[in-house]
Write a structure and sequence with these properties.
This protein is α/β, with parallel strands linked by helices. It is built from five helices and six strands. It has a six-stranded mixed β-sheet. It is globular. 32% of the residues are buried.
């Protein structure tokens, strides 16, 4: 069984190996600097040992419990028009998930990493299709 590294930051784990160019594009977009100057701190995990793993299997990998959330590039990410990354809560409600567009990775990753916000705040702010595209402007 493969082991996830226990490092500072967050993991972007590849489970779909059908399109290398799409993977590279998701990686680049997910660490792009936001207009406000924020960046997601992601370690890219592209190991064929993780091919086709389910969310439950990824959560059960040794080392997974080290993280506040796991970020997964699966078939729905690779095939989706917006390439929405699957975010999975590992602390308060383990297994609760939502999708996040790569341009909003810094928002969710930064805030969860420093315990500034809870996963539920992002999940509750997701659009009706379950994808977090940012917080709606109020006012």
């Amino acid at each position: 069984m493969s082991i996830l590294p226990e490092l500072h930051g967050s993991l972007l784990i590849r489970t779909d190996f059908s399109d290398d160019d799409a993977w590279e594009a998701v990686c680049a977009a997910s660490v792009a600097t936001s207009p406000e100057g924020f960046e997601a701190h992601l370690l890219f995990i592209s190991d064929p040992a993780f091919a086709d793993l389910t969310v439950e299997q990824v959560m059960a990998l040794p080392g997974a419990q080290h993280y506040n959330a796991l970020y997964i590039v699966d078939h729905d990410t690779i095939s989706g028009r917006e390439t929405p990354i699957l975010a999975v809560d590992m602390t308060r409600e383990p297994g609760r998930s939502l999708r996040v567009v790569p341009a909003q990775m810094q928002s969710i990753e930064n805030n969860l990493e420093i315990f500034n916000m809870d996963f539920s705040e992002f999940a509750d702010a997701a659009d009706p299709d379950g994808v977090f595209r940012g917080f709606a402007d109020i006012g």
